[in-house]
Amino acid sequence: MTGARLILVVEDDAKIADMLTNYLHMHGFATAICTNGLDAEAQVQRLKPALVVLDWMLPGQSGLAVCQSLRAFSSVPIIMVTARVEEMDRLLGLETGADDYVCKPFSPREVVARIKALLRRAEGGLPATNAPLALVVNEGPQTVTWQQKNLGLTPVEFRLLRLLMSRPGQVFSRARLLDQLHDDNRDVSDRAVDSHIKNIRRKLDLAGATEHALVSVYGAGYRFE
Q1: DSSP state of 36
Q2: Among 30, 83, 92, 94, which is 20 to 30 Å from 221 by CA?
Q3: pLDDT, tens only, 124-133
């Protein structure tokens, strides 16, 4: 499997890990298995995987804690695997930095499909700044342009849209988006996020960038498509 993209499976159940890695091999991926949460960070640093499949319940350290530690230094896509189906558990995983989740029992075909979708997003990245017809983030002047036209975003709107564009398809909670609003950590209502999102949508529409959308996810937050 020379040159195959490496998927790190962090899972202490040997049967689940073997089933998933065998299916990944069938689809052309290389794999590595980590069975203890305390070893996961070192494995990511050493192997530099293309994506991590991370179980919620692990010996040594929980998947949630692992996800938090990985996000301190890496933007590697993470799929959380959990038997905890309550909505708050799912949202907590996403707010901690997971890009997606699947619930046990799961179909390995579904997991591989989600892996492929996340890798397409991650490898696509943000548009290159020399693409005239793209929605482009310009870090220096802190502007976003569509077909080389400045959208006229405020600094707060720029930070919000840049964050949402950095991970297309990922749901960002209002709490996480609030962290982007002001540098002085002032106390503001989460409805301020809704107001800024409304303004960004209006400016996207005015510029004609109608193929891009900021989607409201009921009870969770927003995602960029």
Answers
A1: -
A2: 83
A3: 544 444 444 4
